[in-house]
Design goal:
Elements: E1 3-4, E2 15-16, E3 20-22, E4 28-31, E5 36-37, H1 54-63, H2 68-71, E6 76-88, E7 95-105, E8 111-120, E9 123-133, E10 139-141, E11 149-151, E12 156-165, E13 174-184, E14 189-198, H3 200-216, E15 220-225
Antiparallel strand pairs: 1-4, 2-5, 3-4, 6-7, 6-15, 7-12, 8-9, 8-11, 8-13, 9-10, 9-12, 13-14
Length: 228
């Protein structure tokens, strides 16, 4: 079987094969095998000027409206894990992190989470995918969870998300200010601030993990403590 594809998105289930499956104007997946094919891989498109993060844009418009009382949703509360996972990858020049958190809804009706992003240091990290942690501690994409997320009335949901800025390295020595921002279906914002202290030992550790990732040609994750 030979598959040739560009990045972006491919998640094909029980595909009736033809010589070529078109994914866009100039994107083809060529399959040289008879029968049905299941591909359990998804590649998230990288945010760019041509592929903007609409959740970020809508959130910024709301936050710049000047009507804080109408913008910040006090009935949706975020509780962060005391750790973020810093991902080092051989093919990543920028920044990728894992965040685990709960979202509590104190409304008498269900609420919807449309999307999320992270303000981080001097830049921002865009949502890439949901992930899950296996019994052995390994992590993998959780393709069963998709936006929008429904939080039941007077209920709580736990989420694990991967965020990325593919091009820009945002982790450096010092105290990095961060903020997880959630856009709800009510066109309001829920957010939670945190701090990530990066000392010399942390810099050396992350540099060493980058070398390990490059040597093994596989991403590695380091769980670092944060304050929130």
């Amino acid at each position: 079987m030979g598959i040739s594809a560009v990045d972006k998105l491919i998640n094909i289930e029980n595909l009736t094969l033809s010589p070529s499956v078109k994914l866009g104007d100039k994107k083809n997946v060529n399959v040289n095998v008879a029968g049905n094919l299941v591909i359990n891989q998804a590649y998230a498109g990288t945010v760019s000027a041509n592929n903007p993060d609409l959740i970020v844009e809508e959130s910024k418009e709301l936050l710049s409206s000047g009507k804080t009382s109408n913008t910040i949703d006090i009935n949706v509360k975020i509780t962060l894990s005391p750790y973020i996972g810093v991902v080092k990858s051989p093919n990543l020049p920028g920044t990728r992190i894992h965040m685990e958190f709960t979202t509590a809804n104190s409304y008498d009706s269900p609420q919807v989470i449309k999307g999320a992003y992270v303000k981080f240091g001097d830049g921002q990290l865009h949502f890439k995918l949901f992930f899950k942690i296996n019994e052995n501690g390994s992590r993998q994409p959780d393709l069963a969870i998709r936006f929008p997320i429904i939080v039941n009335s007077k209920g709580t949901t736990r989420l694990a998300m991967e965020f990325e800025n593919f091009d820009v390295s945002l982790i450096h020595k010092g105290t990095l200010k961060g903020e997880l921002v959630i856009l709800t279906g009510e066109e309001k914002i829920a957010k939670k601030e945190f701090e990530f202290e990066v000392n010399e030992a942390m810099v050396n550790t992350l540099d060493q993990l980058q070398k390990i990732a490059e040597r093994n040609k596989s991403p590695v994750v380091f769980d670092a403590m944060i304050k929130s």
